[in-house]
Write a structure and sequence with these properties.
Aspartate Aminotransferase, domain 1; lyase; ArAA_b-elim_lyase/Thr_aldolase; pyridoxal phosphate; 12 strands; PyrdxlP-dep_Trfase; Aspartate Aminotransferase, domain 2; 2 domains
Length: 352
C-alpha cells in the first residue's frame, strides 16, 4: 500500500499549498531513517548526528554545526551567540525571528529588537547602516544584524549577493555580527547559483532548515565557529533541545541533502506556473523567484479567508497571512498534475 506522501503525489486528496513544511518522508528517506546508526546525542555519541553536523558545517565553510529540533530554536540559539542580553538586534519588520517566533529573542535571550521597514529581499544597506547605535550615553547598543534568505513574507525573494556583501561591510565597519535565518537558503542557492560556501563566508552564524523545501520531517542546524557551537550546545540544552537517539531524524536530513537540493528547481518552476495562472487577476504581490507565490487581494472582491475557503471547497489548501494576503507554496509532495488542478481551481475562483 502506498504511503500518504505517495498517495498525495498520485493525485488523491487535497493539493496542499499552505507550506513546504507539510511534506511526508519519501520511501528512500524512510529507509535511511529505519537503518540509521544511533547513539545518545546529549553525550555526543550519535554518529549520524555527528556526520550531519560535519557535512552542513563544511557546506557553508564553517568549523562546526549543531542539530536542533526546530528552526525557531536554531535561530534563537544563534541570536544568543551574537547579542548579549539587553543589547540590540537589527532586522526587517517582517522577519521570521520577530514575526513567527513568539517574542523568543526577548523572552529567552533578553534581546532588544529594532526593525527597518519591511521590504522583503530588497534591503538598502545604507538604511541599515544608519540605524546602528554605538555604545555610550545609555542607548541600547547594536550588536548584530539579521537577514532572512529566502524571505518568507517577502514572497520567497532572494537577497542579492551584492546586497549581502554590503551588509557584511556594514557589520565589519561597526563591529557587529551578521546572522542569516537561512531556512530556505537552499532555494536561494538553486535560484541564483550562489555556492553555499559563498553564503557561509558572509555570516558569523546561520540557521538552516531541513524540514521545509528539503522534505525532512524535523530539524534545523546552527552553523558557526567551533567556539560558538560549543556554547550553542549549552544553550540548546537550556532550551530543552537536548535529544537522545536522534540519528533517525538526522538520517532524514542527510538523505534530503543528498537527494532533494537540486530538485528545488522543479518547485520553482511549479511556483512560476501558479504565478502565471493567477497574474491576470491582479493578485500577484511580487515576482516569483523561488517556491512561494505571494498573493495580495487588496484590489480583489475576495479577501484572504474567502479565497482560502473557496479554494478548500475545490480541493486546494491555501495559507492565509493577513486579511488581504495569502500564499501558495510548492514542494516535494505537489507534482505537475496537482499544480494543474490548483491552477484551474484558483483561476475559476479568482475570475468569478
Amino acid at each position: 500500500m502506498a504511503d500518504a506522501a505517495d498517495r498525495a503525489r498520485a493525485g488523491d486528496g487535497p493539493v496542499d499549498l499552505r507550506s513546504d513544511t507539510v511534506t511526508r518522508p519519501t520511501a528512500g528517506m524512510r529507509e535511511a531513517m529505519a537503518t540509521a546508526e544511533v547513539g545518545d546525542d546529549v553525550y555526543g555519541e550519535d554518529p549520524t548526528v555527528t556526520a550531519l553536523e560535519a557535512e552542513v558545517a563544511a557546506l557553508f565553510g564553517h568549523e562546526a554545526a549543531l542539530f536542533a529540533p526546530t528552526g525557531s530554536m536554531a535561530n534563537q540559539i544563534a541570536l544568543q551567540l551574537v547579542v548579549p542580553a539587553g543589547d540590540e538586534l537589527l532586522c526587517d519588520a517582517d522577519a521570521h525571528i520577530v514575526t513567527y517566533e513568539i517574542g523568543a529573542a526577548a523572552a529567552y535571550g533578553g534581546i532588544s529588537s529594532r526593525t527597518w521597514l519591511a521590504v522583503g529581499a530588497e534591503i538598502d544597506p545604507d538604511v541599515v547602516a544608519g540605524m546602528v547605535r554605538p555604545d555610550g550615553y545609555f542607548a541600547v547598543p547594536t550588536r548584530a544584524i539579521a537577514v532572512e534568505q529566502t524571505h518568507n513574507r517577502g514572497g520567497g525573494g532572494v537577497i542579492p549577493l551584492a546586497t549581502l556583501r554590503e551588509l557584511r561591510r556594514v557589520a565589519d565597519d561597526n563591529g557587529l555580527a551578521l546572522h542569516c535565518d537561512g531556512a530556505r537558503i537552499w532555494h536561494a542557492h538553486v535560484a541564483d547559483g550562489v555556492p553555499l560556501i559563498e553564503y557561509g563566508r558572509l555570516f558569523d552564524t546561520l540557521s538552516v532548515c531541513l524540514s521545509k523545501g528539503l522534505g525532512a520531517p524535523v530539524g534545523s542546524l546552527v552553523v558557526g565557529s567551533a567556539e560558538k557551537i560549543a556554547r550553542a550546545r549549552f544553550l540548546r540544552k537550556r532550551m530543552g533541545g537536548g535529544m537522545r537517539q536522534v540519528g533517525v531524524l538526522a538520517a532524514a536530513g542527510r538523505y534530503a541533502l543528498a537527494h532533494h537540493v537540486e530538485r528545488l528547481a522543479a518547485d520553482h518552476a511549479k511556483a512560476a506556473r501558479l504565478a502565471e495562472a493567477v497574474a491576470p487577476y491582479g493578485v500577484l504581490a511580487a515576482p516569483v523567484r523561488t517556491n512561494i507565490v505571494p498573493l495580495d487581494l487588496t484590489k480583489h472582491p475576495l479577501d484572504a479567508k474567502a479565497l482560502a475557503a473557496a479554494a478548500r471547497a475545490e480541493g486546494v489548501l491555501v495559507s492565509v497571512l493577513g486579511p488581504r494576503t495569502a500564499r501558495l507554496v510548492t514542494h516535494l509532495d505537489v507534482d505537475d498534475a496537482a499544480i494543474d488542478r490548483a491552477a484551474e481551481a484558483l483561476t475559476r475562483i479568482l475570475r468569478a
